[in-house]
């Protein structure tokens, strides 16, 4: 009896549920505005119309939300792996029996509605990761444990990439935050950020400039960390300035080679002086990073298809993109958002929305309808709602005193933030257009149903908090 958990039952988190309901209502109103037809203002009650289908999905989402809340909280942990396995089976089946839409075989068509297994997999993966982590009472500082857990993320990612749907696959990386919160090494976050930095820098400035910059940073770090001698540090800075000068004079290859030689001469010098204070990773790390940068450059120029290159150029090099081609979506999106001004044009009064100037506005670019009709005030209010929801989700996990609930809450919070940041960012040209919906707003039954279920489950878990073990 002594080791049994003490359980305190709490009521419903009304703030989280209210924010969820507000977002669903806002999403439906924006979809109504996008599909609005003055000749048929009551189309939302007609199942055959676009807004009618959206209405059905909203009702279904609310039913799923409350059904998830009613189900016994213990079942979600007990059936975490079976639910995950079921989602993996769906991902495999869709590769053979799914419908191909816009080049991706990612959907099942059922009775006039579409089911996207990758959305179901998000729920399954979040439960599986939370259940996996909850089995370890200590912090996850073991590479073997983290590596095993990462396989739960990697399997659905690979299957989704085979569809191919890179946007949906990338979302699963947000689950890394769950491992980090439970004691995994900070490197699990630092390394992906470093990879992203090298990737973006290479595509923006090229391999030679990126390679030289990385080499200079590595040289200065190894001097400062392993040999804190002022004269040597000053000399390294002068050497780095010389490399920058060579780059400015367009001797890029010479600058890169000189930097690499300088780094390894310094590294070997420190290693011979005190082998125990400098690890061999210092030698191999730079080569790995430079190799990744070189492969990124090669893949972009020789492996990526033209439409994939266009997506990158729209993001990093708009001047290289056709305003009437690959850049068209982002241009129209920015115009729609900017035209809203401070308070917007008013509900159903958005000219670009009514005239359908923004492609895929009901799905990937629904944020533009809010920007045009509700203006800066409406956009700011929406952002605040999302931030409040994400913070409440995290708070639920932190106050739970239970690893399963904590891990599950961070998984949901990570999903929400990733979708929120990427979707809004791509409508403004800040990130690539990769087709990620805005949770609770974008048209898409699978996304709405799954996110509603995830929030419903979380609120149910919040009603039972374990205070002591």
Q: What oligomeric state is this? A: single chain
Number of helices: 19
Shape: globular
Rg, alpha carbons: 25 Å
N-end to C-end Cα span: 10 Å
In spatial order, strands of the major sheet run 2-3-4
SSE class: mainly alpha
Low-confidence stretches: none
Number of strands: 5
Give the biggest sheet.
Answer: 3 strands, antiparallel
Beta-strand percent range: under 5%
How much helix is in the residues?
A: 55-70%
Mean pLDDT: 84
User: What's the order of the H and E elements?
Assistant: EHHHHEEEHHHHHHHHHHHHHHHE
Q: What layout of secondary structure does this protein have?
A:
Blueprint: E1 6-9, H1 14-34, H2 50-70, H3 73-78, H4 80-97, E2 99-101, E3 104-110, E4 113-115, H5 117-134, H6 143-161, H7 166-171, H8 176-181, H9 187-205, H10 207-226, H11 230-248, H12 252-273, H13 281-302, H14 306-316, H15 328-339, H16 351-354, H17 367-398, H18 403-427, H19 445-462, E5 464-468
Helix pairs in contact: 1-2, 1-17, 1-19, 2-19, 4-5, 4-6, 5-6, 5-18, 5-19, 9-10, 9-13, 10-11, 10-12, 10-13, 11-12, 15-17, 17-18, 18-19
What would a concise description of this structure say?
The protein has helices at 14-34, 50-70, 73-78, 80-97, 117-134, 143-161, 166-171, 176-181, 187-205, 207-226, 230-248, 252-273, 281-302, 306-316, 328-339, 351-354, 367-398, 403-427, 445-462; strands at 6-9, 99-101, 104-110, 113-115, 464-468. With 469 residues, the protein is mostly helical.
């Amino acid at each position: 009896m002594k080791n049994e958990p003490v359980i305190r039952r709490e009521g419903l988190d009304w703030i989280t549920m209210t924010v969820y309901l507000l977002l669903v209502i806002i999403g439906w109103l924006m979809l109504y505005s996008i599909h609005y037809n003055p000749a048929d203002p009551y189309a939302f009650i007609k199942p055959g119309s676009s807004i009618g289908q959206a209405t059905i999905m909203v009702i279904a989402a609310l039913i799923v939300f409350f059904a998830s809340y009613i189900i016994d909280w213990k079942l979600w942990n007990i059936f975490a792996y079976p639910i995950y396995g079921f989602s993996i089976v769906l991902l495999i089946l869709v590769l053979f029996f799914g419908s191909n839409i816009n080049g991706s075989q990612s959907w099942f068509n059922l009775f006039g509605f579409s089911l996207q297994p990758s959305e179901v997999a998000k729920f399954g993966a979040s439960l599986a990761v939370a259940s996996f982590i909850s089995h370890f009472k200590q912090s996850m500082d073991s590479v073997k444990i983290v590596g095993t857990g990462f396989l739960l993320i990697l399997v659905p990612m690979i299957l989704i990439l085979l569809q191919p749907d890179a946007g949906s696959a990338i979302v699963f990386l947000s689950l890394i935050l769950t491992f980090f919160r439970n004691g995994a090494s900070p490197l699990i976050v630092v390394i992906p950020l470093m990879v992203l930095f090298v990737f973006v820098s290479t595509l923006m400035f090229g391999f030679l400039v990126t390679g030289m910059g990385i080499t200079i940073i590595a040289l200065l770090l190894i001097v400062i960390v392993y040999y804190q001698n002022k004269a040597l540090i000053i000399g390294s800075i002068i050497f780095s300035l010389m490399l920058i000068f060579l780059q400015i004079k367009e001797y890029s290859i010479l600058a890169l080679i000189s930097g690499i030689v300088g780094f390894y001469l310094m590294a070997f010098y420190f290693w011979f002086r005190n082998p125990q204070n400098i690890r061999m990773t210092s030698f191999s790390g730079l080569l790995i990073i430079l190799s990744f940068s070189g492969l990124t450059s090669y893949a972009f120029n020789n492996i990526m298809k033209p439409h994939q290159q266009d997506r990158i150029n729209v993001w990093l090099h708009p001047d290289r993109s056709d305003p009437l081609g690959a850049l068209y979506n982002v241009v129209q999106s920015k115009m729609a958002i900017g035209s809203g001004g401070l308070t917007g044009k008013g509900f159903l009064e958005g000219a670009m929305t009514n005239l359908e100037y923004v492609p895929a506005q009901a799905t990937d670019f629904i944020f533009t309808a809010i920007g045009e009709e509700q203006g800066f005030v409406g956009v700011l209010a929406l952002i605040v709602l999302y931030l409040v929801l994400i913070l409440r989700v995290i708070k639920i996990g932190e106050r739970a005193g239970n690893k399963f609930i904590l891990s599950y809450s961070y998984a949901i919070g990570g999903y929400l933030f990733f979708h929120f940041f990427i979707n809004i960012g791509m409508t403004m040209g800040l990130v690539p257009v990769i087709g990620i919906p805005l949770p609770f707003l974008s048209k898409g039954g699978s996304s709405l149903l799954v996110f509603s279920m995830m929030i419903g489950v979380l609120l149910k878990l919040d009603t039972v908090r374990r205070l002591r073990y």
